[in-house]
Amino acid sequence: MSDAPRLRHAVRVLLLDERDRVLLFRGEEPDTGRAFWFPAGGGLEEGEDVQSAAVREVTEETGLADVALGPEVWRRRHVFTWRGIQWDQRERWFMARVVHFEPDGAAMTETETEDLTACRWWTVVDLQATTDELVPRDLAALLVTLLADGPPPIPIDVGV
Question: What's the average model confidence in pLDDT over 139-159?
Answer without folding.
Answer: 96
